[in-house]
Each structure stands twice: as structure tokens, then as C-alpha cells.
């Protein structure tokens, strides 16, 4: 073998060794944990049980730090209550497609999950329902407008996100049950 060939072979082997060594050392280590990231998606089920506002339930998936709005419109016992557009607060009443007042429940759900999996939640509850009619004078005319009942309450609480359930009772007796699972 010639001296020139040996030098070329050594040079090629050394170049290849240098090319592969840094790649092996540059990889970042992978850490495996059994916990989900606190900002990952969480599946929440919200259930409302109320004599005044009816029963509703829905399941959704959101992330920590996001908020979600639940709105349920249902027909009250006795049916929808006809309403004139001249009635006070007409624009804020929950109406069906025929313009009659129905009951409505709204919840804004805003969880923030800590690294240990505990969610701190703010829940805003608002509901309205008609309770018959009342006589109202507007613009010199006597109108029959819905006698509506409204409830509004904000709750703050903590709960685990391991599938357990948290039951809350509002001031009017309405029960809101929340379950959370990653």
C-alpha cells in the first residue's frame, strides 16, 4: 500500500467519525411523566338541575385559561308566554321563533389548571323564565308583558381534574354539577 492511499483512508475515517459523534451528543434527553400538561385539553360536563329553569347537561373540551359559554333555551311549563315588542326589556328577553318568551339558562365556565391537576374555576350563572303575565303601562298603553324571574350568581371553586364531580347549590336552590377529566 502506498503512503498516499493510507493517508487518504485515515482522513476519510476520521471525517466520518467526526460527523457522527456530534449528532449523538446533540440530542436532548426525553423525559417521560405520567401527568398530562396542565394546559392540555380537559373534558368538562356541566349539568343544571332546577325547578325554575329546567334540567340541562352538556359536555365540552377546553383548555386551561380558556372560557366556554353554555346556553340552553327550553319551553317553560305552561308553554311560551306571548310578548309585545313594546314591553320594557323586550330586547333582552329570551324568545322563541314566534317571538314568545321562553326560559333560558346561561353559564360561563372559566377553569385554570395548576401543575398538580387542580382546577380553579369561575362559573357565572344567569337564567330567566316567565311566570305568567303582568300589566305594564308603556307609552300610554296598558300591555300584558311576561312576569319574568331572573337569577344571576358568580361562583368560584376548586376541583380535581381526575374525573371527580363537584356539586354546587345556588341561592335559589338550583344545583350545578361539574365533572372534569383529562
Can you tell me about this structure?
The protein is mainly beta. The chain has one domain. The chain is built from one helix and ten strands. The protein has one helix at 3-26, and strands at residues 41-50, 54-63, 68-74, 81-82, 100-101, 103-113, 118-138, 141-160, 162-169, 175-181. The strands form three sheets. A four-stranded antiparallel beta sheet has the order 2-1-10-9, with no helix packed on it. β6 and β7 (118-138) form a beta hairpin. The longest helix is centred in the N-terminal third of the chain and has 24 residues, at 3-26. The radius of gyration is 31 Å and the shape is elongated. The N and C termini lie far apart (68 Å). InterPro entries: DUF6013. It holds the Pfam family DUF6013. Residues 1-26 form the signal peptide. Keywords: Signal.
Summarize the structure.
13% of the residues lie in helices and 54% in strands.
Q: Which key terms come to mind for this protein?
A:
182 residues; mainly beta; 4-stranded antiparallel beta sheet; 1 helix; signal; DUF6013
The dominant shape is elongated
Structural Rg: 31 Å
Structural class: mainly beta
Low-confidence stretches: 20-34
In percent, how much strand structure appears in the residues? over 45%
Please state the average pLDDT score.
Answer: 85
Number of helices: 1
What is the number of domains?
A: 1
Cα distance spanning the termini? 68 Å
Total number of β-strand segments?
10
Spatial strand arrangement across the major sheet:
2-1-10-9
Order of helices and strands: HEEEEEEEEEE
Major sheet: 4 strands, antiparallel
Helical content (DSSP H or I, runs of 4+): 10-25%
Pfam family, one: DUF6013
Keywords: Signal
Signal peptide: 1-26
InterPro entries: DUF6013
Amino acid at each position: 500500500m502506498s503512503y498516499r492511499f493510507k493517508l487518504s483512508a485515515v482522513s476519510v475515517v476520521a471525517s466520518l467519525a467526526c460527523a457522527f459523534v456530534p449528532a449523538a451528543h446533540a440530542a436532548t434527553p426525553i423525559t417521560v411523566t405520567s401527568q398530562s400538561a396542565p394546559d392540555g385539553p380537559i373534558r368538562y360536563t356541566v349539568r343544571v338541575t332546577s325547578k325554575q329553569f329546567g334540567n340541562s347537561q352538556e359536555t365540552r373540551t377546553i383548555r386551561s385559561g380558556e372560557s366556554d359559554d353554555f346556553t340552553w333555551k327550553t319551553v317553560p311549563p305552561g308553554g311560551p308566554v306571548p310578548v309585545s315588542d313594546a314591553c320594557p326589556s323586550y330586547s333582552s328577553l329570551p324568545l322563541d321563533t314566534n317571538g314568545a318568551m321562553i326560559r333560558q339558562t346561561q353559564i360561563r365556565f372559566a377553569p385554570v389548571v395548576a401543575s398538580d391537576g387542580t382546577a380553579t374555576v369561575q362559573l357565572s350563572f344567569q337564567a330567566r323564565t316567565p311566570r305568567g303575565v303582568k300589566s305594564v303601562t308603556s307609552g300610554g298603553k296598558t300591555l300584558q308583558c311576561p312576569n319574568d324571574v331572573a337569577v344571576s350568581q358568580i361562583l368560584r371553586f376548586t376541583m380535581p381534574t381526575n374525573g371527580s364531580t363537584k356539586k354546587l347549590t345556588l341561592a335559589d336552590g338550583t344545583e350545578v354539577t361539574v365533572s372534569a377529566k383529562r
